[in-house]
Write a structure and sequence with these properties.
- Strands 1, 2, 3, 4, 5, 6 and 7 form a seven-stranded mixed β-sheet that branches.
- α2 packs across α5.
- The protein is built from six helices and seven strands.
- β3, α2 and β4 form a beta-alpha-beta unit.
- By secondary structure, it is α/β, with parallel strands linked by helices.
- The relative contact order is 0.19.
C-alpha cells in the first residue's frame, strides 16, 4: 500500500466526513441518464460543488453467495438503504479529493454510479475478490452553466481483501468502507489532474470475470 494511500486512509479514519469551511457542497441534482456520453476531460478545473446519483434502477442483491448477481452488492455497513450508503461513500471520496484538485476554472462535478459490486460475506472471509466500481461523470462550468464536453465512463476497481488479510485490515481499522472511500478520492484526483485520467489496476481473473 503506498504512502499516499495510507495517508488518505488515516484522514478518513480520524477526520469527520462532514464538509466544512470552503469544502464543496453536495447537492441533490441528478445527472439525467439520457445525457450521458463518453468523452474526455477538460484540464485546469477545481471542484466548487458536486452531485452524486445512485439510480434506484440499480438492483441490490443481499444473498450471501460467493458472487451474488446484481448491480449493487455492499456488506460493509449494516443492512439498510444500499443506494444511500453507496452515495455517501462517493460524496465522502469527493470531499477528500476536492482540496487536492487545484485548477482555476470553477466547476460542478456530476457523478452517476452505474455499478458498485463489492464482496459478499462469504467472499470477504474466504477468497476475497474485486470491488467492481463503475461510474460516469461530467463537468459543468459554473459561470456559464454549460457542460465542459461530454461525460466520461470510469472503471475504479479495487482489490478486495479476503480471509486473514481482511481480518488483519479490520483490526487496523482499515474497513472496506474506509479503503473504498480513500480509493475513490484518489481516482477523482487522478481523473482531474493526470493526462488520460485514472488507469484501472490489473486485478487478474476475478476482475476479468466481473467485466464479462
Amino acid at each position: 500500500m503506498s504512502t499516499l494511500f495510507k495517508s488518505l486512509m488515516a484522514m478518513i479514519l480520524f477526520v469527520s466526513l462532514t464538509a466544512c469551511g470552503t469544502a464543496p457542497m453536495a447537492t441533490r441534482s441528478a445527472m439525467p441518464d439520457d445525457t450521458l456520453l463518453v468523452g474526455t476531460l477538460p484540464p485546469d478545473v477545481r471542484i466548487d460543488s458536486f452531485t452524486v446519483t445512485v439510480p434506484r434502477s440499480l438492483k441490490v442483491n443481499e444473498r450471501n453467495l460467493y458472487y451474488p448477481v446484481g448491480d449493487i452488492v455492499w456488506r460493509g455497513e449494516p443492512r439498510g438503504d444500499r443506494h444511500a450508503q453507496v452515495e455517501a461513500m462517493f460524496e465522502a471520496g469527493l470531499r477528500f479529493a476536492a482540496p487536492r484538485i487545484e485548477g482555476t476554472r470553477p466547476v460542478r462535478l456530476d457523478v452517476q454510479v452505474t455499478r458498485f459490486h463489492s464482496l459478499s460475506e462469504k467472499a470477504r472471509y474466504t477468497v476475497g475478490g474485486v470491488h467492481d466500481i463503475d461510474f460516469r461523470y461530467r463537468l459543468v462550468d459554473l459561470d456559464t452553466g454549460l457542460p465542459l464536453g461530454p461525460s466520461k465512463l470510469v472503471n475504479a476497481d479495487l482489490n478486495g481483501l479476503g480471509g486473514q488479510a481482511a481480518l488483519e485490515a479490520e483490526g487496523r481499522g482499515e474497513t472496506q468502507k474506509a479503503r473504498i472511500i480513500a480509493h475513490l478520492s484518489q481516482v477523482f484526483v487522478e481523473e482531474l489532474t493526470l493526462p488520460g485520467g485514472h488507469v484501472t489496476a490489473n486485478l487478474g481473473l476475478l476482475q476479468a470475470i466481473n467485466d464479462l
